[in-house]
């Protein structure tokens, strides 16, 4: 190694956007009741686990997976009832698809537009890919501000607009009519991110044939497969054929492909769990309404955002009692004193409510 190598530092070599980034935070949850990451809390039935064990035993892990994941894609098409005119693109989680989209459009000065507060990866991935990032604040009640959106689109001509539907971290579904107007006015692609689709009764999937610049993204993470890392996006063949070129070869591993296929054959099991989570959400919401000084927001997702005085201390109080949720209190001016709890099993939800009440009582 020559002595000049020592002069090469991250500061001298890396892009400023990278130096400025903070890595996506994943706190240690060992031994905690984990209600911070919107996972499905229910394990699979024993018989299905055994079927998966047998399947995995026979998987040829010495071979690369099917690069096009044809069987898995066929399963997904069948489950969502996709018309022939539309295509599916698979990602190693939907995060990877967001990145792939940004890479595809990242010409110098290209803009990614989203709303805030929303999913933080839209902004992070804009930085990863050197895109300009523009955000439009939601209204006080977390609705889309249509005039502000139209003005921002006019001004910044975004190549990509991301809308989380339902929105993370607020949990609400935006007005579908307003989204339609945004799609119609957008100068580029609009991605409706339906990560929480399983817990809502609404989707833009049926609109894909009407709007050629619309793409709909979903993930299996919230439906009970977070560990597999599998997301997908649906759109017209014209767009997806181009985007496919950027998908890294073999991005969906052989274990993910095979296990996801098996689980999709038992889609009813996952849907029943989602139904249960919706019932648990209603219970949790009612209980939160009943806790003094707590204001929960109505949710169409598998989590509930709530506002509470001394949120930082309450978050710590919960942690001390073994319950990990998400502290959003300092993440955005609209989220001051806000915490977000993922819906867990009834037992976990009770434990959370108890820990919350105890933490609040410290202050009264
Ligand atoms: N979109 C939204 C709105 C999300 O909240 C998340 C996960 N928190 C994702 C996409 C990414 O999910 P995954 O990469 O696990 O598919």
Account of the protein in words:
There is one protein chain. By secondary structure, this protein is α/β, with parallel strands linked by helices. The chain has two domains: 7-44 and 269-362, Aspartate Aminotransferase, domain 1, CATH 3.90.1150.10; 60-266, Type I PLP-dependent aspartate aminotransferase-like (Major domain) (Aspartate Aminotransferase, domain 2), CATH 3.40.640. It is 39% helix and 16% strand. It has helices at residues 10-13, 16-20, 46-57, 70-80, 94-105, 121-128, 146-156, 176-185, 237-244, 254-265, 267-290, 311-320, 346-361; strands at residues 33-34, 86-91, 111-116, 132-137, 160-164, 189-193, 214-219, 231-236, 294-296, 303-308, 323-324, 326-327, 338-342. Strands 2-8-7-6-5-3-4 form a seven-stranded mixed beta sheet, with helices on both faces. A four-stranded antiparallel beta sheet has the order 9-10-13-12, covered by helices on one side. A hairpin with a 6-residue loop joins β9 and β10 (303-308). The mean pLDDT is 96. It binds 4'-deoxy-4'-aminopyridoxal-5'-phosphate (PMP). Residues 38, 93-95, 119, 164, 168, 193, 195, 219, 221, 231 line the site of 4'-deoxy-4'-aminopyridoxal-5'-phosphate.
Question: What labels describe this entry?
Answer:
364 residues, alpha/beta, Aspartate Aminotransferase, domain 1, Aspartate Aminotransferase, domain 2, 2 domains, seven-stranded mixed beta sheet, 16% strand, globular
């Amino acid at each position: 190694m020559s002595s000049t190598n020592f002069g090469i530092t991250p500061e001298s070599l890396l892009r400023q956007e990278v130096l400025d980034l903070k890595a996506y935070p994943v706190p240690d949850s060992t031994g905690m009741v984990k209600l911070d990451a919107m996972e499905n809390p229910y394990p699979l039935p024993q018989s299905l686990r055994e079927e998966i064990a047998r399947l995995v035993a026979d998987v040829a892990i010495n071979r690369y997976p099917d690069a096009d994941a044809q069987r898995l894609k066929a399963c997904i098409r069948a489950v969502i009832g996709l018309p022939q005119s539309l295509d599916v693109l698979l990602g190693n989680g939907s995060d990877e698809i967001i990145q792939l989209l940004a890479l595809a459009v990242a010409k110098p000065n290209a803009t990614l537009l989203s709303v805030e507060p929303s999913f933080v990866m839209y902004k992070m991935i804009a930085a990863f890919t050197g895109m300009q990032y523009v955000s439009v604040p939601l209204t006080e009640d977390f609705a889309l501000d249509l005039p502000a959106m139209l003005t921002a689109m006019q001004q910044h001509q975004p190549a990509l607009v991301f809308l989380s539907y339902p929105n993370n971290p607020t949990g609400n579904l935006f007005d579908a009519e307003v989204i339609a107007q945004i799609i119609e006015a957008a100068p580029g692609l609009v991605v409706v991110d339906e990560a929480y689709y399983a817990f809502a009764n609404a989707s833009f999937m049926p609109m894909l044939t009407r709007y050629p610049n619309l793409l709909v993204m979903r993930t299996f993470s919230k439906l009970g497969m977070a560990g597999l890392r599998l997301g997908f996006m649906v759109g017209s063949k014209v767009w997806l054929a181009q985007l496919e070129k950027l998908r890294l070869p073999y991005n969906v591993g052989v274990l993910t492909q095979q296990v996801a296929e098996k689980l999709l054959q038992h889609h009813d099991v996952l849907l029943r769990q989602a139904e249960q989570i919706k019932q648990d959400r209603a219970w949790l919401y009612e209980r939160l309404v009943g806790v003094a000084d707590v204001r929960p927001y109505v949710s169409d997702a598998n989590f509930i955002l709530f506002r509470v005085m001394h949120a930082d201390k309450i978050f710590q109080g919960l942690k001390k009692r073994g319950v990990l949720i998400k502290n959003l209190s300092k993440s955005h001016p609209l989220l001051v004193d806000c915490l977000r709890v993922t819906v867990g099993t009834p037992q976990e939800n009770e434990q959370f409510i108890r820990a919350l009440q105890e933490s609040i009582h410290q202050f009264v």
